[in-house]
Specification:
This protein has seven helices and no strands. It is mostly helical. It is elongated.
Length: 132
């Protein structure tokens, strides 16, 4: 019953935002020092984190990752400032991240499972046990 109400070790939205903010600050500070390859590392970390949020969860998790597209935008805006090696790395990681995203259909199936798990079977079980 407890697992149906809240998953153990679950990240909270504030924690997700805080981590993104730390990566953003580090990215912009590196860019201010003209360390564009270093800044790209932080931008790529943001991209990979977004990919992680968009895998294995529900559409809500995927949407949370979509709100943090700053890493993608920074990489697009600063592509010409990167070294050739970093440009190749960025292209590879962006391609891999795109390939790893869960499909909309799979996310929707997980939504149904999550809804049943959090409000469906556990609620019905409480009702049955409460009737005794």
């Amino acid at each position: 019953d407890a697992e149906a109400q809240r998953a153990p070790n679950m990240l909270l939205g504030g924690e997700v935002r805080m981590f993104h903010q730390h990566l953003s600050f580090a990215m912009y500070e590196a860019a201010e020092r003209l360390e564009f390859d270093r800044a790209a590392d932080y931008a790529l970390a943001k991209v990979r984190y977004n990919t992680m949020l968009s895998r294995g969860g529900t559409t809500g998790h995927a949407r949370m990752g979509d709100h943090f597209q700053e890493g993608h935008r920074w990489l697009e805006d600063n592509r010409a400032r990167l070294s050739p090696a970093k440009s190749r790395e960025v292209a590879e990681i962006l391609e891999r991240s795109t390939a790893e995203l869960d499909s909309a259909e799979l996310l929707e199936q997980r939504d149904v499972i999550f809804a049943d798990r959090s409000g469906g079977w556990s609620g019905r079980l409480r009702q049955i046990l409460g009737d005794r």
